[in-house]
Amino acid sequence: MTRREIIRFLIIRTIGNFLLLFAVFGVIATFGPALYYEFQYRAIQARGVHFTVAESVQSTETVLPNPTATPPPSNRGFGDVLSGPTEQILVPPDPSFSILIPKIGASAKVFPNVDPTLESEYLPTLLRGVAHAKGTVFPGVAGNTYLFAHSTDNFWDVGRYNAVFYLLKDLSVGDEIVVFFENRRFDYKVTGTQILEPSEVSYLLQGQTGKQKLILQTCWPPGTSWKRLVVFAEPK
Whole-model pTM? Predict the structure, then answer.
């Protein structure tokens, strides 16, 4: 093998290794967060961890279901799930607008009146929490309250955008969802779930019959934006 052939071989092998590592990085960056939350949820189930929601929040004072209980840290990690108490309290990050889902241990701040059709508006919002769709009602008002955490721009940002609602797929009919809005607590129960095409938005126009409905949306499958997983809930 000549010197030129050796150099060509090394260049081709280097490029091949780079492309392989880039592909592996892309897979990890895209699906790694989903796997992390999946393993965390399975650990929660295996340990029998049970989450309850603070009964009410008045200013900075939290009223807990169990007076002897203490709320978990807001940045609860995998270690807390593995070694923490089996009875944990979810506290809204912001009592002016937050969503809490005890079954999956989710707690996130909600940002109101975000235009779901305007990327420049909803993408920065989804970096910080869940978005409330502009044009839909707020909790306690008849009509649809639509909350979403579903959009990405680059694959390396998937975990930052979608982490909050990764486990919506594990919700079943009857599961509890709690929303705090303007220091008031609103309790909902799941009535159904659907996987829909991104172009299907008729569900936002349904149910405008004087009843309250909560609609949660995320991307499906996790780590992609191919379809939409939609969860429907009504007041208890």
Answer: 0.75
Give the position of tokens 């807001």. 74
Q: Which residues pair with 106 in a beta bridge?
A: 101
- Give the three-class secondary structure for 137: coil
Specify the DSSP class assigned to residue 66: S
pLDDT digits (tens, 9 = 90+) for 41-76: 777 778 888 888 987 665 334 444 443 343 444 445
Give CA 114 to chain center in angstroms: 16
Q: What is the CA radius of gyration of the chain?
A: 21
Closest CA to 94 of 128, 52, 67, 133: 128
| CA within 13 Å, CB half, 203 | 22
- Nearest-10 Cα torsion for 23, 25, 27, 32: 170
Using an 8 Å Cβ cutoff, are 133 and 217 in contact? no
Q: Which residue has the tokens 């969802």?
A: 177
* Local structure of 75: helix, strand or coil: coil
Those residues of the chain that have pLDDT short of 50 are: 59-75, 153, 155
User: What is residue 83's predicted lDDT score, i.e. its pLDDT?
Assistant: 67
Burial readout 85-114 (b: 16 or more C-beta within 10 A, e: otherwise): eeebbbbbbebebbbbbbbbbbbbbbbeeb
Contact 55, 61 (CB under 8 A): no
Supply the pLDDT for residue 182.
94
Q: How far apart are CA 66 and CA 54, in angstroms?
A: 9
Residue 219 has which token pair? 């991307």
